[in-house]
Each structure stands twice: as C-alpha cells, then as structure tokens.
Specification:
single chain; elongated; UDP-n-acetylglucosamine1-carboxyvinyl-transferase, Chain; binds phosphoenolpyruvate; 429 residues; alpha/beta; 2 domains; 14 helices; EC 2.5.1.7; four-stranded mixed β-sheet; binds uridine-diphosphate-N-acetylglucosamine
Length: 429
Amino acid sequence: MDKIRVTGGVPLNGAIHISGAKNATLPLMIASLLTSDTLTLKNVPNLADVANLARILRNHGVDSALDGKRANGAPQQGDTLHLTARDIVDTTAPYDMVRRMRASFWVLGPLLARCREARVSLPGGCAIGTRPVDLHLEGLKALGAQIELDGGYVVAKAPGGLQGGRVTFPKVSVGATQNVLMAAALAKGEVVIENAAMEPEVSDVATCLTKMGARIEGIGSSTLHIQGVDYLEGAVHTVLPDRIETGTYAMAVAATGGEVMLEGARADLLEAPIGVLREAGVEVDVTNSGIRVARNGAGLAPVDVETEPFPGFPTDLQAQFMALMCKADGSSHIRETIFENRFMHVQELARLGAQIDLEGDTATVHGVKSLRGAEVMATDLRASVSLVIAGLVAEGDTEINRVYHLDRGFEELERKLGDCGAQVERLAA
Ligand SMILES: CC(=O)N[C@H]1[C@@H](OP(=O)(O)OP(=O)(O)OC[C@H]2O[C@@H](n3ccc(=O)[nH]c3=O)[C@H](O)[C@@H]2O)O[C@H](CO)[C@@H](O)[C@@H]1O
Ligand SMILES: C=C(OP(=O)(O)O)C(=O)O
C-alpha cells in the first residue's frame, strides 16, 4: 500500500486550483439513472470515488465517456463526463461495490423511481459512526415504496410507481435528502421534503435536476416542493467547486504560514469556516477569482468550534481544523455533533506530539510550540488530510499509511501542495 511522506517546516506560497466537489459529483452521476438521455457533467474531479461509482453505474447499464486530456491518459483538472443510461440492465447494486463508498447507496431512489424496483446493499464509506440509512428508507416509504431488508440488502418495490407525499426528516441528512429528491423528481404528484439538508451539494443536484426537466421549488432552503414529472431529459451541468478541499488548503496555509490563492473557490460556500479562520488571526480575502489565504508572522488564536449542518461549520473540516488548533497559542474546544465517532485522528495527531483531551463529543486541543514528525495511519478521508496538515508543520518527516483514503477525495494532493513549496512525496508500496 502506498504511503505519503511529508517533510514539514516549509510555508506554503503560490496558487492552488480548487477541483469540482466530490460530494456533488457523486450524486450528480447517480442522477444519470433517471433519464435515457445523456447527462454531461463538467468540472468532474479525478478521484477514486468517481472511478468507483462509474463502475457501479456501469453495472446498472450506464455508459460513461470521459472527454479531455485525461481520457488519453494524461491528468487534467476538471474533466467532462458523459453518462448515458439508455436502458437499466440490472437493478441490483451488489455488496462488493457499494461497501466501498457511502454515496453509492443513493442509487436506491433513482432506480426505484425509474424501474419501480431496486435491490441495494447496505453501504460502506468512512468509518466515522454507525451511519444508519433509516431516513432514506422512511423517506422513500412516504412516497409509497415497499421496503424490506434481506441478507444485508434493501429490497424496494413500487409496483404502481412512486407517489406524491410529505417527508419530514427528524434529523438533517445530506444523503437522504438527495436520495428522496432524485426519486421524487419522477413521482406522481407533489412531494414535499421538510427539514431538507441545505448543503450546497444538495442544491447543486436540485439545480441539475431542474435542467433535466424536474420541477423543484425551494432550492437552497429547508423545504423542497417537487412536482413529479413523467420523464427527465439529458442536460449539461458544471459541478460546483469543492468547499471541503477549499477549507482544507485554507487550513494548511493557516498552519504553515505563507500566502496562497485558492483559485476558483467560492466564499459563499464557506462562510462559517472563513469566519473561524479570521477569528484565529488568519487573513482571508475574497476576490473575483477565488480566496486568498495568508498568515505572515502572526500567531494563531485558539477558537472554539462546533460542527453543524450547513451553513454551520462542516464536520468534513473538523479534523483539519483540529490539526490547525494544535499550533494555536492556547486551548480550543472542538465539538463534533454530526457523527459519534469522528475523532480517530486524535490518537494519530498525538503521535506527532499534539496534546488533545477527549471527553464525549468534545476535544480540547492544547496548542503546542512544535510538533515532531512520526509514522501515522490514515483512518478516514478527512482524518488523513488532517495528518498531512500536521505533517506540514511538524519538524522532520511524517509518513502517512493507508493513503487510499486520501485518493478517494483529494485530487492531485501532492502536486497541489508541491506547487506551493511543500515537500510531499508518494512512496509506492
Ligand atoms: C458522500 C457524501 O456526501 N458524504 C457526506 C454526507 O454523508 P451522509 O449523507 O452519509 O451524512 P448524513 O447527512 O446523512 O448524516 C448526518 C447524520 O444523520 C445520521 N443519519 C443519516 C442517515 C440516516 O438514514 N439516518 C441517520 O441517522 C448520520 O448517522 C449522521 O449522524 O454528509 C455528511 C454530513 O455533512 C458528510 O460528512 C459526508 O462527507
Ligand atoms: C465522509 C465522507 O465521505 P463518505 O460519506 O463517502 O464516507 C467525506 O467526504 O468526508
């Protein structure tokens, strides 16, 4: 298995182009199941999750074709992906495919809407909590689906097609909102989703669905009204920039010092993290071309943070922020309210000399003068990149094992950081 070696102590200076968002690309790819026409997605990142989902969709009958230099083997940012599900040839999503990635479970709603049946394995994804799927299932049941669990599979049927209905989520769920929204686009009648997730990736999917002919009102709000239509058409849609990648590099620059332009980043997707970085004493300027992040000489103030659904501080930036706070001048409290087991990076950061006390859902991070490089293990996607950030500020070498987690969600991480002067090297197994 590949490792990444980070040699710390170098400030970051330069520019980083922000890729298309993984967590929008995946459901957008799945939306291709809803039409027999071609759905064209632009600004698609080159990630293991994207390749893996293309394989899963192929199994259902979705042809995918990649435009651009990468189609000829050379890497290029922002590929164009054409997805065509002329006929659905298989309505089963098998365990061996779905276990690798949480988002692949979102095929359930679209398959059910188009084929009136689906058999989808219970999902995998980052091991950050129990991550049940009850909200997805209850939502689809409210649209008339009959659902059973059989040998680790969700078996869903809607012999007369999905119907209108009201779905009131007891808790905000990004995935359940996307799953039910895609299914609702082809239901008979009106579907109302209350307490919908307002994450920008949900709005991106809703916007793409409207381009395909769906009738959706309330995009960006917590109540979505969907008038089901008989069929959806193809469309061309550009994936929005990755706010988690943006926040990650912003925190890396804040940690190492220096000045980096995050090209193509959108500040409106990151108001809470930008506010927190400014409170910590980091310069963040929003320009027409992106976000400029700088810290030159100033210390880092400790800031308390609580993760929340959008527009609050995202759980997907919690680990990276913790790595940053390890270098703050004082103690900060970080409370994780979304996932019950998303602190696995704590013990790995401790190997580098971080001082973090964990009690229940709150970590108290005591800033230290310096971190020292060590061998560490990536435990999940965002935890892995928090170790990269810590490695960038640590003295000496940090070797990160199990980098396949990083490859799921960060496009060309070594090159992007390397272009800004960081010493980050992949060691092939
Ligand atoms: C591929 C993708 O987009 N992944 C993101 C998505 O994951 P995902 O969509 O899986 O996360 P959810 O928003 O569904 O999870 C939020 C909370 O709801 C709970 N829950 C969820 C569904 C359900 O049926 N029952 C239930 O109890 C979860 O365990 C969690 O405690 O949103 C998370 C929260 O912003 C992010 O961390 C993930 O990066
Ligand atoms: C948790 C994440 O991914 P997944 O939901 O696919 O596990 C993530 O993107 O941070």
